[in-house]
Specification:
Length: 147
């Protein structure tokens, strides 16, 4: 039996950095008409924390192991989880410049969630007209507006 396939799109936004921030996620379940939209906000945060939170929240709602195509407009998130995290773990969460990894709490959560699924990471340029990326950007900004 093949795994369920899910397309996920995530984005974070911040007004000021740090400042009020929001995140949005859209999940589309293959083989069904089911689409799930998620959003949230924090009063004082950073853009990178909101980008990470969006990916975390998208994966956290998945109740069983699935194949996920996750698209983000954050090189920080994509490169962090696909390239940098293994080195950070080996070096005790210290960067190549000998400094503590920023947002370690969120990287730990994301790394644990990614281990539960088969995740393929994709990057799309933000604000370039990609409909699903534009939608999650709108969700993130709606969440900030609702604070």
């Amino acid at each position: 039996m093949s795994k369920v396939k899910v397309e996920a799109y995530t984005d974070g936004a911040c007004r000021g950095n740090p400042g009020p921030g929001g995140w949005g996620a859209l999940l589309r379940f293959a083989g069904s008409e089911k689409i799930l939209e998620l959003k949230g906000a924090e009063i004082n945060t950073t853009n990178n924390r909101m980008e990470l939170t969006a990916a975390i929240e998208a994966l956290a709602v998945l109740e069983e192991s699935v194949e996920v195509d996750l698209t983000t407009d954050s090189q920080y998130v994509k490169n962090g989880i696909t390239r940098w995290v293994s080195g950070w773990k080996k070096k005790g969460w210290i960067t190549s410049s000998k400094k503590p990894v920023k947002n370690k709490d969120l990287w730990l959560k994301l790394d644990a969630l990614v281990a539960q699924h088969q995740v393929q990471w994709h990057w799309v340029k933000g604000h370039s007209g990609h409909p699903d990326n534009e939608r999650v950007d709108a969700l993130a900004n709606q969440a900030i507006d609702a604070l």
